[in-house]
Specification:
- Helices cover 46% and strands 16% of the residues.
- With 113 residues, it is an alpha+beta fold.
- It is elongated.
- The protein contains 4 helices and 3 strands.
- It has a domain of 78 residues: Arc Repressor Mutant, subunit A.
- A hairpin with a 4-residue loop joins strand 2 and strand 3.
């Protein structure tokens, strides 16, 4: 395989990954079954509030496999499901340089409707 074909295949893979088309072998799919959510649910079980960046959250839940940008993608994509299934409300806000994630955990009786 020559360099041009190699470069084109690499570029195609990068674009496909960005568009979430194929899932590479060994990487979890970006679904509500992603391992990150199990760790997040366990982490928030005894908390009512948490605030920090995606990197802070990954460190807090001891997740070394999930990249920070995947955390924000997952939380954006599944925030409604997370709220209705587990009572975890997700909010994002920006400071000058950081995207802050704010998590609230509501018990069934105190959920906002």
């Amino acid at each position: 395989m020559d360099r041009n074909n190699e470069a084109k295949l690499k570029a195609d893979l990068i674009v496909a990954e960005a568009m979430q088309k194929p899932d590479r072998e060994g990487y979890p799919k970006l679904t509500e079954e992603h391992p990150f959510f199990g760790r997040l649910r366990y982490f928030m079980a005894d908390k009512s509030h948490w605030l920090g960046t995606a990197t802070d959250l990954l460190n807090a839940i001891n997740d070394t496999a999930t990249p920070p940008n995947t955390v924000t993608k997952l939380l954006n994509k599944f925030s409604i499901d997370l709220y209705f299934s587990d009572g975890i409300d997700v909010h994002f806000r920006r400071t000058n340089r950081k995207k802050i994630i704010e998590l609230y955990r509501y018990r069934r009786s105190e959920k906002r409707e």
